[in-house]
Amino acid sequence: MHEVSLNRVITDYLTGQEITETTYEDLRQALAKLLVEDRKYPRENIRSKYILDYAINGELHSVTLDLAIFSPEGDPLLALVFCPGEVGTFVRESVAAARIHLSSPFPLVIVTDSMDLQLVETRTAEVIGTGFNAVPRWDDLPALAQSHPCPMPGEDRLDKERRILAAYDGLGGPCCGGECSI
């Protein structure tokens, strides 16, 4: 299943602006609300539908992270990805996306289907927590990210990660392979 417009407008929880409702937007909104209200993340440190652009042999690609969390100084801390299926099958793709983020990788990734959740350390792709209780509180997130540093990969490794991401993206067929307007 891929994300499609429902041809309705809703109010974005994070920004208060009107946005197009999609098949996944209710989940994205619920996750943002969990981060803000339950885990005390400042709204201004969360970016929804965060686009990562990258190139392979000069060909441009992009992938969208559902939510991207940054420190007050702008450092990436956590990428959150909603997946429409078995969470474990989306971890490698999500880690590749976190690793190619410039100017530095996201040290932590959350992958969830809204029922299951895995907190993953980006450098090794090790699952370090499961279930919604694994979502770190805002006050704990910087130290957790710092305890799991992910240095910027060299250009050869970045190229491989980009290719892995593009391969996973291409598995979705013509629509999910990057041609969707959403």
SSE arrangement:
Layout: E1 5-11, E2 18-22, H1 25-38, E3 46-56, E4 59-70, E5 76-82, H2 91-100, E6 108-112, E7 117-121, E8 126-130, H3 141-146, H4 155-170, H5 173-179
Parallel strand pairs: 5-6
Antiparallel strand pairs: 1-2, 3-4, 4-5, 6-7, 7-8
Helix pairs in contact: 2-4, 4-5
Question: What's a concise summary of this model?
Answer:
With 182 residues, the chain is an alpha+beta fold. It has helices spanning 25-38, 91-100, 141-146, 155-170, 173-179, and strands spanning 5-11, 18-22, 46-56, 59-70, 76-82, 108-112, 117-121, 126-130.
What do you see in this structure?
The protein is an alpha+beta fold. Helix content is 29%, strand content 31%. It contains five helices and eight strands. A hairpin with a 6-residue loop joins strand 1 and strand 2. It is globular and about 40 Å long. It starts with a strand and ends with a helix.
Provide tags for this entry.
6-stranded mixed β-sheet, 8 strands, 182 residues, alpha+beta, 29% helix
The helix content is: 25-40%
Find the count of extended strands (DSSP E, 2+ residues). 8
Strand content: 25-35%
Order of helices and strands: EEHEEEHEEEHHH
Largest sheet at a glance? 6 strands, mixed
Structural class estimated from helices and strands: alpha+beta
* Spatial strand sequence of the major β-sheet: 3-4-5-6-7-8
**Separate helix tally:** 5
Indicate the radius of gyration in whole angstroms. 16 Å
Question: What is the CA–CA distance across the termini?
Answer: 13 Å
